[in-house]
Amino acid sequence: MPETGSEYFENVKDTVQSFWHGLSITLSYLMRRPITTQYPDRTELEVKDTLPPRYRGFLEVDPSICTGCQACERACPISCIQITLEKDAANPKQRVVSQFDIDEAKCMFCGLCVEPCPTGSIQHSREFEGSQRSVRNLTIRWADPEHPFPVYKVPKGADYYPRAPLGALVRAKFDARPWYAPGPEYLPPEPPSAKKVEPSKPAAAKPAAADSAPKPAAAKPAAADAAPKAPDAKPAAADADAKSPPKPVVEMPADAPAASSANAPAPAPAKATTEAAPAPPATTTGPKT
Amino acid sequence: MPANYAPRYTPKLVVAITLAAAVGIPIAIFGAITVATPLLKPATLDALLPSATPAARTAAKIAGMALLGLLMVTFGAIFSGVIVWWERRIAGRMQSRIGPNRAGYQGFFVWICDAVKLVLKEELIPKDADALLFRAAPYFVLVGFALTFVVLPFGHSIIVADLNVGIFYVTSVTALVVVGILLSGWSSNSKWALFGGMRSAAQVISYEIPAGVAIFIPVAMAGSLSMQDMIRAQGGLPWEWFIFRNPAAFIAFFILFISQLAEANRTPFDLPEAESELVAGYLSEYSGFRFALFFLVEFGNIWVLSAIATTLFLGGWQIPFVSAAAIDAARGAGPLPSLAWWGWQALSVVVFGAKAFLLSNVVVWLRWTLPRIRIDQMMSLCWKYLVPAAFACFVFTLFWQLAVGVAPKIELASGIGLTAFAAVLTLLFARRVALNVREVRGDKYDFSNW
Amino acid sequence: MEKLILRRVGHTGEEMLLNFGPQHPSTHGVINFLVDTDGEVMKKAVPDVGYLHRSLEKIGEMVGYPGYMPYTDRIDYVAAMFANEGYAMAVERLLKVQAPPRALWLRAISGELCRIGSHLVSVGTMATDIGASTPLVHALREREAVNDLIEALCGARLTYNYCRIGGVAYDAPQGWRDRVLKFLDHFDSVLVEFDRLISFNEIYIRRLANVAVITREQAVDYGLVGPNLRGSGMDWDVRRDVPYGAYPNFKFKVPVGHGFRGTEGDTYDRYYVRVLEMAESSHIVRQALESMPDGEFMAKVPRKIKPEAGEAFSRVESARGEMAYYVVSDGTDKAYRIRARTGSFTAMGIIEDVSPGLMVADLVALIASLDVVAPEIDR
Predict the structure, then answer these.
(1) ipTM of the complex
(2) Which DSSP category does B448 fall into?
(3) Which of A18, A110, A111 sits opposite C201 (nearest CB)?
(4) Chain B nearest CA to C50, separation (Å)
(5) Domain C58-353+360-378 coded CATH 3.40.50.150
(6) What letter would DSSP give residue C167?
(7) CA angle at residue A83 from A77 to A86, to 5 degrees?
(8) Helix, strand, coil percentages, rounded to 5, for chain B
(9) What DSSP state is assigned to residue A109?
């Protein structure tokens, strides 16, 4: 509220002056280039090629140089990496990695796993385009339990480790199926009593389906072995309508994630067992500390 | 890894359709108004149908009036839509970003998409709301808006009805908007909506005073309340416009402009509406088509206020170097006017449209530059600054008109002097704009990235 | 809980009790305010916090010391570098390890850039709350540039995880220094233009001057920190008064509010102090880039961080004021207790006592001027 006449005219003068400046600035912006990047289809280069080299995108593992040291799993503060090492059935001296799941949905892209990796197998790629309809499809399985990969033996005095081009592998994983592909149904940990189930294939499929009748049976890799018998268990597993029942899950390509999240029980070794009963619950619960 | 990536721009078909629409729609609506309005006047209809019975003639006249009314409302609606798109693009570029540019080439169809979306939305009426008033409120606002189009002079003879109380009619009819706002605030059955509605109504009513007084000035200078008379009292060249012919009119233009902004609830005076960000404003319970009506009126009001300001102060449809009398003379004696006359009509519509569009851009520009004024500051602005200034201008004009009666040359002197002043201000402003770009290190003129 | 708050608000049933939030465009995060008002003028506004509580301090007891660093980013994700730095300093004190000079310089540079980014958000959102939406977009445009710089440095734009216990994660990449200088040249001129656009706009000044005055005594009593405290006239800055890191090597002014356009301690003071601080930060970054020492950017720290039992306290001047970390170790590789004291939490307390007599539009200005971010309040 102006008290005096001079303040009154001061106010008017200040207002006009500040408007003059403000309006001239906005008008001048009409003539400058907007900084919008018209992603994704009107940029000169693909955006992912314009990102800096240290950009922390999706994690990518090159299994061919993974030494199975589990340093990344220990370093991860949010337990999104799940690794299982086993002895190769054929050659007990050789260790193989039968499970290397990274839950990209849980990952907080901190980069703490990249630092301790001795060979640079796990890296942050520059991929950021990986939206999926089902969050469970964001768990990328870098090791196929059916065909676990052997750990890499670091050659003496090696000064570099031959790695696939950064981003190629994770891009292939995401491109392997469409974004709207349905995710695996959730398989809860089996109760202890279920472990006594007879390892006969149709019967195994049926208790699994019956046990998890309120929740449809998951398409686990182990259950994948039972899948050829799926038509038998069809009535019970019919509500596993995520996939059309006759199609055996085991036919999925090797590099596509086949099962549920990192909380899934560690799959049994590739051959033989058709137990739908999973490994003991200890490996199903959360963070390994 | 190499990717076959190349940028993909709008397909040519979409570009063609959008350009056709963007050029065609304004031409169609302006053309329809230009052609239909003189033809559907009662006098012309009488001359065109000499052998019809009186009853048929009356029916034709009524049909003509209805058609004109429909055309005007359509114009209002189309303008609201197009200005929505235009405002969003301008706002975008003022903010270093692109506005909507995907729905059609350069995003032209975004207003159609908005309209369709609003029409398809569910219309909720709160349980305890007064249903009849709730439903009626948007229509009061719409009627108050649409009725002003009756006297808007689009061109030399392009006016639906040249009432001899033209501008007075406009002032009285826009008061219906206040009724609509109060009704919507009351019937929403929310204490906050009521407060918001009352505050907005207080704002609109308060700003009618300086607007009304500022309107007296061109009325006094023209000696008539009729819109066409006021324009004919001006001329096409800038120093013949009322705004420059009288120093008080120069100030009155700004008073009128500010008051009309406040009446239209545009920033910087949109606290009652933006209050709906904070708490419920008078619009909060509306959804769907009713909400669309409120917003149609808000954006359409930009045109109305620009048109009124153009008519009163900026010379309306007057074409430079062409006098209104000359166009009258070009009409010819037959029932239908001559082709030259139609040409002049079209040109006058273009002049009027350009001036009003320029003012609309100023309205949009102000919205995206200035912050909001608080309600008590708004009232203080009105009563302490605008009303005294408006009255001072009015008194000055009375004396000025007396002086002009004695020595007509002072009007020309004032006209040329103020025009020069305005030209200098414009040049200074342009220089300031250019300096802005130069002063920021790393910025330059760049019209790319649409 | 509801009854407790209602009792505090003193709601008598005559006025309106309004829930301002938790979903609201103007509350800078997920905060709820219970506003007792008779339409225009408020009787009281009581904040109701906790909507963004994520147990970050409890998580500190489960992940190890190095693993907690990304969680500190999320304590205040608008200005994450300071949280990183404070935590790293606290654990370094526990470990009795000193980060090498180059690391301290890099922390200072990235911290000041982060401060610029955070103040841009604060200043821009304040302008938007007052009604001018253009300055926000301009401010965010500059913040994008800051984010690009930090992305080139550490790989992320918001949650940096850049500091490590004992130093920083990466050295500055090739050409980064020149990019920063180019940005600063551009930014200094943009700041002048920004001032002309909004800070000196008469309507804006009228909205903010003499509104919600917080006196110096009140500010100190309520424990306000940072620009809120300096806006009320108290000349206190942790960088200068309790120097840490590389700050003893830089000369910088500390802007203090003195009633730039109204009274000392009003909203305009707090706002303008932030604008001035941005200019000072730019100055500090230039000095730091000039004088950056060479050398290691990470000290020798054991592979498994297991400090001796003890406690450590560290303070940094974050964008929102003094952020303090109190880390207690019990000798194992997981912390016993990590406590982060943030500036926004105490700023919530003063809203209740400054709000009587304000209009609702002014409440928005008050909250914006205190620059509260919800994650800092609730952690």
Answers:
(1) 0.89
(2) -
(3) A18
(4) 21
(5) no
(6) E
(7) 150
(8) 70, 0, 30
(9) -
Helix, strand or coil, per DSSP, at residue A246: coil
Short-list C175, C84, C334, C375, CA closest to A110: C84
Q: Which of C179, C202, C207 to mutate to test the interface with A (most CBs of A within 10 A)?
A: C202
Cβ atoms C136, C128 nearer than 8 A: yes
Of C151, C152, C197, the CB nearest to A22: C197
Residue boundaries of the structural domains of chain C: 2-48, 58-353+360-378
pLDDT, mean of residues C195-220: 92
Look-up of token digits 């310089």: C105
Q: Which chains are adjacent to chain B, needing at least 3 Cβ pairs under 8 Å? A: A, C
Angle at C199 between CA C194 and CA C203, to 5 degrees: 125
Domain boundaries defined on chain A: 1-32, 47-188+250-267
> Using CB atoms and an 8 Å cut-off, which of residues 119-178 of chain C contact chain A?
134, 138, 141, 144, 151-156, 159, 161, 169-170, 173
What integer is the mean pLDDT of C196-212?
92
Q: Quickly count: other Cβ atoms within 10 Å of residue C120's Cβ.
A: 30
| Confidence at C16, pLDDT banded by 50, 70, 90 | low
Question: Looking at the partner chain, which of B97, B380, B434 has a beta carbon nearest the beta carbon of A35?
Answer: B97
Report residue C321: phi and psi, to 5°.
120, -160
pLDDT value of residue B112: 93
| Residue C7: pLDDT band with limits 50, 70, 90 | low
- The mean pLDDT values, 10 residues at a time, for chain B of 450 residues are 75 93 93 89 79 83 89 93 94 92 90 92 84 88 92 90 90 88 84 80 91 93 91 89 92 94 86 64 81 90 94 91 83 79 91 94 93 89 93 94 90 92 95 91 82
CATH fold group of domain A47-188+250-267: Alpha-Beta Plaits (3.30.70)
Q: Can you tell me the distance from the alpha carbon of A195 to that of A282, in angstroms, rounded to the nearest whole number?
A: 14
- What is the widest separation between alpha-carbon atoms in chain B? 86
pTM of the model: 0.86
Nearest CA in chain C to B443: C186
Which residues of chain B are at the A interface, by a Cβ-Cβ cutoff of 8 Å?
A: 1, 3, 5, 7-9, 90, 92-98, 101, 365-366, 368-370, 380, 384-385, 429, 432-434, 436-437, 443-449
**Span C280-308, average pLDDT:** 93
* % of chain A residues with pLDDT over 90: 32
Handedness of CA C105, A52, C81, C170 (dihedral sign): negative
Q: Would you say residue A264 has pLDDT above 80?
A: no
Q: What pLDDT sits at residue A13?
A: 92
Q: Quick one: how far is CA C48 from the chain centroid?
A: 20
Whether C209 and chain A come into contact, CB under 8 Å, resolves to no
Q: What is the pLDDT of residues C238-253, one digit of tens each?
A: 999 999 999 999 999 9
What secondary structure does DSSP assign to B5-72, as a single string? -------HHHHHHHHHHHHHHHHHHHHHHHHHHHHTSHHHHHHH-TTS-HHHHHHHHHHHHHHHHHHH
Record: contact C131-B374, CB cut-off 8 A: no
Question: Which among B191, B278, B377 is the nearest to C364, CB-wise?
Answer: B278
- What span, in angstroms and rounded, lies between the C-alpha atoms of C240 and C251? 9
By CB atoms closer than 10 A (0-12, 13-18, 19+), residue B225 is buried
pLDDT at position A228 over 50 = no
Q: How confident is the model over A136-171, as pLDDT tens digits?
A: 889 898 988 888 888 988 888 888 888 889 989 999
* Residues with Cβ within 8 Å of residue A233, at least 6 apart in sequence: A202, A205, A206, A209, A226
Residue A92: the pLDDT is: 80
By CA distance, what is C144's nearest residue in A? Answer: A35
